[in-house]
Amino acid sequence: MSPSPKRDLLPGTLDMLILKALSAQAMHGYGIAQHLQRLSQEVIRVEEGSLYPALQRMRQKGWIKAEWRQSPNNQRARYYTLTPQGRKHLGQEESGFAELVAAIARIMKPA
Amino acid sequence: MREWLARLRDWFRREQLDRELREELEFHRTRLERDAGDNAGAERGYAARRRLGNLTRIREEARERWSWPWLDTLQQDVRYALRGLRRSPGFTATVVLTLGLGIGANAAMFGVLDRLMLRPFPYLLDAARVHRVFLRYRDRDRDRLESAMEYTRYLDFQRWAAGFDRWAGFSQGTTAVGTGAAARERQVGRVSGTFFGFFDARPALGRFFGPAEDVPPVGAPVVVLSYAFWQSEYGGRDVVGQPLQVGSISTTIIGVAPRGFIGLGDPVPPDVYLPITTYAGHEGGPDDRKTYYTQYHWGWMGILARRNPGTSIAAANAGLSAAYRKSWESERAQDPEITPAELARPAAVVGSVKSAAGPEASLEAKTLRWVMGVAVIVLLIACANVANLMLARVLRRRRETAVRLALGVSRGRLLRQAVTESLLLGLLGCGAGLLIAELGGGTLRRVFVDEAATIPVLTDWRTLGVAIGFALLAGLFTGLGSVLFVASEDLAGSLKSGAREGTYHRSRARSGLLVIQGALSVVLLVGAGLFVRSLNHVRRLRLGYEAEPVLLVMQSMRGTQLSDTQRVALGRRLLETGRALPGVEHASLVSSIPFWSTSGTDLYVAGIDSVRRLGRFTYQTATTDYFATIGTRILRGRGFSEADRAGAPRVAVISEAMGTVLWPGRDPLGQCMRVGSDTVPCTTVVGIAENAAQRSLVETQPFRYYLPLEQFRPTRGWALLLRLRADPAGQAEPVRRSLQREMPGQSYVTAIPLDDVLAQQRRSWQAGATMFVAFGALALVVAAVGLYGVIGYNVAQRTHELGVRIALGAQARDVVRLVVGQGIRFATAGVGLGLLLALVAAKWIQPLLFQQPARDPLTYGVVAGVLVAVALAASALPARRATRADPNAALRSD
Is the ipTM of this complex over 0.85? Predict the structure, then answer.
């Protein structure tokens, strides 16, 4: 049905991806989903069913803040921004992830 | 943790969050549709719509982040309970008030008990190893326990006792602090330079004094202020280096103790702290201030000691006792008349720093424990009553419960609701109780501790915690009945047969609760009766004088130096002025005050080797009018006359008991005794006075002699007794003002009714009587309300049956007999059980009573009568209602 096969996310990476997306600019939920989909060239599709619960969880953890703003085409939308705590958490996740990826890469391409 | 707080916060605004999420998803949907529409791909449009179908699920999952199901249920239960309680305000008010009285009594009592016995002193380090030293020895076949010691003894212990790493001496008393109009009687802590080392406290300002400033014979004139005194008198400004007059000592302020520091002054904290040797060297008696650190004449201070970490209490006691024996020998080396150690068997022990919890606990402290027990009983009665009321309510709501069960509400939910309701009532009662405790706290304080003590309830976490604990226990206990009922009863049956059956069920649990309430009330009332009678005995006790009409005036010299002649002249002037005041009948200058001070000196009587071996003989020196002033009766011979002046033949009046012990079988009148030394001329016994209590209300050795002040140490007449025609308490202030004019320099007088001094002695009995009566009355009221409630409920249940009876020809009298008879049966069962309990408890309460057998038939009888009478009254009202049961209504309703 989709042009390219849909891949499941590695567990735990969704939070990191959302934080990364928000680190550039404040976005609403739909924007985050679109952003991730576009950047991954449609490989990653974030299910709304996991996106919104994840946003609520991260808000309660204090990583992101939510506020209502006007979207460019003048609709009221809920925008999420990164908090300093969230930025710190993103840093930890990123370095951890880089190590993990490098380790996996070494195993997969032994030559 | 933070996350949980955020979740909790979200729970409180969950409705808003729900709304926001809905809007957010709505926005998501429109964007998705529009984007899909833009791309015009049919497949993708379909996919978008397919995903829309999941919106509800998304919402549910997101919502989980702020939904707390059990919190929702709890909130519902609380709302349900509150609604139920609002619907029956009478029931709620009764329960809250009943529990409030019970919890309030306990909170207030705990506040006092905690202060006196449990609460550790603020800042005290290693409290478990810090002890007060107590001495035990035998004196004339009686075991004695002593905590007031000599400074010399304190030095001995430090030198000789093994097993301790820190020592401190302390005492506390009131002294005038400040000068001129600002001078007030203040609590002065006299503490050694090592004292502050026992605490982990840093001065709020300046510094504490140390051992270098606390050295005999006279320590440095420095003073440390308490934080509260600093705030109230100086407004917290920098006071270091400023002068402060403390008694006769011109001191310099060197520091301020931190907030909350009270030393060992609980419940009355010191206002200022003075080095103990500074106090002793300046303010001790004329001889004492020179010899207090070398001799054993002045026992006035407490010793604080800290055990080495590795030393057990037994080893510490052994070390102390060895040191005490050595010290005893050293005292005997100074004074061979002291009983040899083999007979006196001196031993020293460590005890609690809290005097009420230590081995020397006063009768008040023991009474206090009992009263705390009584407060718990009051709470139990209150709980029984509330449990009864709640059970009645559950029975009344049987139908409602059955319907709810039938409609599918789980039993678990019903149970939870029942518990919620009773806990809620408990907490409401707790609120009421804390208010009651805060308001009633003043009374307790007057009864048990010093006026100056502050015992807050609402701001004290320990008391609050205990009150809430009591409330939760009470809530669980009172809810238990209802819970068991819901869990066990076959409610479907009641739905089938209807709430009103032809007969009424007697609830065994409710009857049992009622009987227990009655029994406990009986126990308390018996206690109240015993304490009241005991207090009456104390009041009526012939002390050997009459304190009621007497006003006591004391001089404080505050360092104003007077020569002996000036001193005697001042005394004369006060005496003359006092006698001339309106309303004064008699006046006398004296050297000692009952229960405050006694004096003794060596006595020599021909034919007796050592008078001291026969007991403790104390003297009072007084001016002519003494016996008329204080009301001590002269049994034979004469009192003093104007002729007994300095230079005239020496005379004495002795107590009856003293005559018997010194001259057994002979007439003491005309006998010769030598006072102070065996070379002075004879003092002739000219009168026999009745025995008078001097050191305790029941004096075992009232050996006392009276000497004319002019003939023996005329400078020692420091107190003035005035016998007034009426109202000594009201006259105290005018009398003080008149006499103050005679006082030179900084010196001043204070005036208090002599009866106040005695009131201190009666305190424990007074406390017992007051508290037992208060709690007994409370218990009686609660029990009466309970009985009234139960009988009233039964009557309501039996309306149908009673109506049938009346229809069949029963007279009003028969109906009344039926209802009242039930009340009386409850009462009799309660009385029987209660009297039995009282009989059992009698042997423990006996030591607290004064010449009053704890198994007193009169008290028991009166209490039984009172309870039955109250039961009669409580069932009379429902009985009247019963006679008005309408036979018509009864017969037609089916």
Answer: no
